[in-house]
């Protein structure tokens, strides 16, 4: 009886841990997606600032080069953040798989405990003396 309660408590804890791990994985995947969108937007901006032949002069060309250089640095840091976010997402996915394995193991222990309890109950009924003996009187 105490084992069944203990296993039920462990199962509740593992279920909560699994839910938390799944929520963390979703949060990290959202962060990775937003970082990828930011990186894509920065790349679009860098392409839009590409130098083009104009008659505006060297100052405009220097300003465009300056902004393009800053955008490239931002793109590099965004790429690094995307890589870090993807690594964090992989770690969170592994944590979710681990929590799922733990929960499945506890569920198997619970099922085994229930099966053992059912077998003990069947054996107890088989070994129990009959409730009353039926005697047939000669008629």
Task: Walk me through the structure.
The protein is mainly alpha-helical and 139 residues long. It has two helices and no strands. Helix 1 packs antiparallel against helix 2 (58-127). The radius of gyration is 33 Å and the shape is rod-shaped.
Provide the succession of SSEs. Answer: HH
User: Structural class of the helix and strand makeup?
Assistant: mainly alpha
By DSSP (H or I, 4+ residues per run), the number of helices equals 2
What is the overall shape? Answer: rod-shaped
Give the low-pLDDT segments. none
Number of strands: 0
* Fraction of helical residues: over 70%
Q: In whole angstroms, how far apart are the ends?
A: 50 Å
Overall pLDDT metric = 85
Q: Which strand-content bin applies to the residues? A: under 5%
Radius of gyration: 33 Å
Largest sheet: none
Brief summary:
Helices cover 84% and strands 0% of the residues.
Q: How is the secondary structure organized here?
A:
Layout (H helix, E strand, L loop, with lengths): L1 H47 L9 H70 L12
List keywords for this structure.
mainly alpha, 139 residues, rod-shaped
């Amino acid at each position: 009886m105490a084992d069944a309660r203990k296993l039920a408590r462990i199962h509740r804890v593992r279920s909560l841990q699994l839910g938390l791990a799944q929520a963390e994985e979703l949060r990290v995947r959202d962060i990775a997606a937003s970082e990828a969108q930011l990186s894509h937007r920065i790349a679009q901006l860098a392409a839009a600032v590409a130098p083009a032949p104009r008659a505006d002069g060297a100052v405009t060309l220097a300003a465009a080069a300056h902004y393009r250089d800053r955008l490239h640095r931002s793109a590099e840091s965004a790429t690094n953040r995307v890589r870090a976010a993807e690594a964090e997402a992989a770690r969170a996915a592994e944590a979710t798989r681990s929590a799922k394995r733990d929960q499945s193991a506890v569920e198997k222990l619970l099922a085994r405990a229930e099966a053992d309890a059912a077998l003990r109950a069947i054996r107890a009924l088989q070994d129990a003396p009959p409730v009353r003996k039926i005697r047939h009187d000669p008629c």
